[in-house]
Amino acid sequence: MELPPFKTKMVEPLTMRTRKEREGLIKKAGYNLFFINSADVMIDFLTDSGTGAMSENQWAALMQGDESYAGSSSFIRFKKAVQKVLGFPFVIPTHQGRGAESVFNTVLLNDGDSVTGNSPFDTTRAHIENRGSKIIDVTSGEAFSKKSLHGFKGNVNLKKLERVLIKNKTIRYVLLTITCNSVGGQPVSLENIRGVAKIAKKCSVPLFYDIARFAENSFFIKEREKRYRNWPISKIVLETMRHADGVLMSAKKDAIANMGGFIAMRDPLLYKKLAPQAILHEGFLNYGGMSGRDMETVAKGLYEGIEESYLRHRIEQARYLGESLHKAGVPVLRPIGGHAVYVNASEFLPHISWDRFPAHALAISLYIEGGIRGVEIGSLMEGRNPETGENRKARFELLRLAIPRRVYSREHFDYTIDVFKKIVKDKGRIKGMKFNYESPILRHFSSTFKLLS
Ligand code: F0G
Fold it and tell me: Chaperone as a keyword (predicted)?
């Protein structure tokens, strides 16, 4: 067992609800977990984004927030942390990750352009498509194999990447998402990163990363790539970043802040091009939608996020939950990723067809049974084909249990495992779902459902 490298100073009480109360609450919420109040959730695995517990140093730094519009000392400290931890000289703050995506893609992409790389996150995809551009996904085949236990399932298929870059002249940049949230929080190896960088350079296409979970990726590199076993995480991070022209960051993840983001880069000309767009949408270049105190928490969190003892404990938490569920007969994507456990619901509930949303049905059962909230990542989230109006079938029907940073302890995970064990015994009774109201866009957030009888 990994000893948590922290202890609790302040507590946030959980409201204990009974099973009966939860049955009523979820019915009233139209069987949509986004309509459930957090006070009615006992363990919230909805996301690891902005939900982490800040340290005493972050809270102390927050009191030093300089809220000046221009030249704030909080910005100077924030920029210094980004430069030191990641090695990029130019930094544009944004209110969160998607703010960075919006500014970046508005400047880099136009109608008919393309982007290639491993599978981007939904908001990233939406921002690219919103510019009339398309994504050519070159994630390695391992990512989609249930059997493979490859240590770096977030890797790019290098041969495919090279083919795509040679054939396609509309590609404006290569984007590597590390770790790759869309394929189970799986890491990308440094060997693969080097390969990607070499090909991108040869084809004169710039390389950018989405580094929401760069620290977790670096931990996996240390753990799984022999060459780096004795390297400190800080050095692996810099070695990773060395190959990129720039990065987009949601500071709500590996910077353990509740809000924030940024774009960091090497090229002063790119900075000049992005700056006006950033001012227009995010705010002046010294705050970009963050308050001074937010920037202070990110500055501290960037250092805390790469502490090896913290990362080891965090990765072990996900692994403990995932491997215990696997042993209890719940199929999960393996190896377990960095920030979440992904339950394969179509394998767990083979009696529910994909268009009856097995992962959503499982999410509802998990809430009723134990007050635990996860999120469906499957055909419900995938939506309909805009041309044919047909439901799109996702590659996997997954229930994601994302783990907030420094929030839950072993008892919370043991409780979760016990709830799953109860569900395993009676899983045949879980029924599929159909729409009561289907929202036309991003339907998983705001649709309501009925249980099939
Ligand atoms: N990139 C990745 C890989 C992400 O996982 C997210 C958000 C973003 C970008 C967008 O950042 O939320 O700060 O605007 N992921 C969250 C999640 C929402 O639950 O996985 P944001």
Answer: no
The residue extents of the domains of the chain are 19-48+307-451, 56-304
Examine the residue annotation and report whether 253 is marked as an active-site residue of this protein.
Answer: yes
**Would you state the CATH architecture of domain 56-304?**
3-Layer(aba) Sandwich (3.40)
392 and 379 in contact (C-beta within 8 Å)?
Answer: yes
What type of residue sits at position 303? Y
Residue 121 annotated as catalytic: yes
CA–CA–CA angle 114, 120, 124 (5° rounding): 75
**Cα(41) to centroid(ligand 1), Å:** 22
Distance in Å, CA 404 to ligand 1 centroid: 13
The active-site residue out of 95, 153, 253, 427 is: 253
pLDDT single digits (tens) 316-369: 999 999 999 999 999 999 999 999 999 999 999 999 999 999 999 999 999 999
CB half-sphere exposure, 45, CA atoms < 13 A? 28
Alpha helix ranges (H) inside 63-155: 73-86, 97-108, 122-130
pLDDT in tens, 393-421: 998 999 999 999 999 999 999 999 999 99
Active site residue 69: yes
Residue 2 is classified by DSSP as: P
pLDDT at 65: 98
Rounded to the nearest angstrom, the gap between the alpha carbon of residue 226 and the centroid of all alpha carbons in its chain is: 26
212 CA distance to ligand 1 centroid (A)? 7
* Whole-number Å distance between alpha carbons of 234 and 240: 10
Which pLDDT tens digit goes with each residue over 15-69?
Answer: 889 999 999 999 999 999 999 999 999 999 999 999 999 999 999 999 999 999 9
Q: Which CATH superfamily is domain 19-48+307-451 in?
A: Aspartate Aminotransferase, domain 1 (3.90.1150.10)
If you average pLDDT over residues 98-122, what whole number do you get?
97
Report the helix count and the strand count for the chain, using DSSP H and E.
Answer: 17, 14
